[in-house]
Amino acid sequence: MTTLICTLQDHRDDVNWCAFSDKLFATCSGDKTLRMYSSHDFSELPFSPLSGHGYGVHCCCFSTCGQFLASCSTDATTMVWSTATGEIEAVLEHPGRSPVRICVLSPDSAHLVSGASDGTLALWDFPSKKLRRTGAVNDTTMVACSFSPCSQVFVSGSTYGDLRLWDLDMNQLHAEKNAHDLGVTCCTFAPSILSGGQVVQFRLASCGQDSLLKIWAISKFVSGGYKMQLLHTLTGQSAPVLSCAYSSDGQLLVSGSVDKTVTVYDANNAVLLYTLNQHKRYVTACCFSPSSPLIATGSMDKTVNIWRLKDGCTHHESSDRTSNEERTSASRSKLLVSDWSEGDVSAWLVEEGLQGLVDKFRANNIDGTELLSLTRETLTSELHIESVGLRGKLLRKVAELKSGSVCSGIPDEFLCPITRELMREPVIAADGYSYEREAIDSWISTKNRSSPMTNLPLITTLLTPNHTLKMAIGRWKTNH
Question: Measuring CA to CA, which residue among 101, 137, 97 is closest to residue 119?
């Protein structure tokens, strides 16, 4: 379910766009300003609002590092702001001085693309803020743009209704004519890269004046060719769909419409999950937080709503857990070992004939998580267990616990393919598989960037948090 947690009412005109970084949240409006907030409590920053544009601001986006915010305006400029001070770092004047309707930064923050009302695109080198290339589509207005997760290609969308794929030399790699009747309004790449055999595949969502939200597969072949295929057409809204965005793990898709609704979909299965009806006018903007289960939606009613996705996976505080040593073996077996309290560990030691270690474990606050991480070295140097036989017996019992948890009905997709342990911080790698963050970080640093599952080279080492999988694991833990 979703819960509205706050409404921001600071803009004096239509809210045109909103964007999250890890720690900040930004909005822009027809009132010529941008506003910046802490994404922790949504308090406005001291230097907000940001004023500098001469006309309405159409779009804003953060750099991946969160240090910069880019915005574009009818005044024909794209501005780069410091998120630390609110100062203008650069002003990029669009070639031809046409109103700039869209701007987007590549995931690696190496490039910025701006699109204008005259159908032109400008590709900028972001570190130097220098114009690198230009391109154009005649007789249309550029209103949508998104970089692929590998940062090597991007898609543009226009009022003509087409989606076009470009490389960094501004070569058109593919054109999908009439992708949306009456015009495209927004497009966004999913953050994950799917690879297998001779093909690398991306997912792209687009929406338009035809009241449809579409999901596409864009395939890149070893030969260098590209193919674009429509996978799903989503019809959950009854009027033009103005905005769409993927969650940071690519599992959810949100869209906002002229019918004043916000819809949230399971992106993989194209299933409508929620319809939100809080706005009083057209919903023009939507985005997911990359670091928490939050959705932001902006509207022509001049407000921004912040929604929390509830999934039952919130972490229990230690006070919510039973720490009573008398907990039975049967009731303890329903918990994951990693969720055992110190009392559970003590009771387990007694059951296994290791009662002589109870006091030592209690003194060192060994709970279930600590128990599973014990090694021969820590037993010797930190717990000072001198008996070789006792150390060996304890490690064998811990190994049995680990193997038992793997065989105890935990869904395989919840286990890290590398460690075969239940994931706590699942992330999606470039091969499309999910891993425990620490495990895949270690693998990448020692295995020459190859995929643990396919042995093929990883196109990028970018790791995307899999919030949906983390929520599913949380639900499973709650129910078991």
Answer: 137
Check residue 390 and give its pLDDT. 85
Indicate the helix (H) or strand (E) that contains 476: helix 467-479
Rounded to whole angstroms, the Cα distance separating 345 from 218 reads: 51
Question: Hey, how many other C-beta atoms are within 10 angstroms of the C-beta on 281?
Answer: 14
Amino acid, res. 270? A
424-443 per-position pLDDT tens digit = 999 988 888 888 998 888 88
Whether pTM exceeds 0.70:
no
Q: How many residues in the chain?
A: 480
pLDDT tier, 267 (very low <50, low <70, confident <90, very high otherwise): very high
Are the C-beta atoms of 252 and 270 separated by less than 8 Å?
Answer: no
Q: In 3D, which of 60, 61, 141, 134 has the Cα closest to residue 99?
A: 141
State the average pLDDT over residues 294-300. Answer: 97
Asked if residues 106 and 81 have their Cβ atoms less than 8 Å apart, the reply is no
- Exposed / middle / buried, residue 188 (Cβ in 10 Å: 0-12, 13-18, 19+): buried
CA 332/CA 368 separation, integer angstroms: 11
Distances from the Cα of 333 to the Cαs of 137, 347, 437, 442, in angstroms? 63, 12, 27, 31
In what side-by-side order are the strands of the sheet with 142-147?
142-147, 153-158, 163-167, 172-176
Nearest CA-CA partner of 51 in 28, 74, 24: 28
State the pairing for strand pair 33-38/464-465: unpaired
Which tokens in the block code for residue 175?
Answer: 């054109």
What strand order describes the sheet that includes 304-309? 2-8, 304-309, 294-299, 283-288
The answer to whether 155 and 204 are in contact (CB under 8 A) is yes
Over the Cα atoms of the chain, what is R_g?
A: 25
Q: What is the pLDDT of residue 400?
A: 75
Average pLDDT over every residue of 94-104: 94
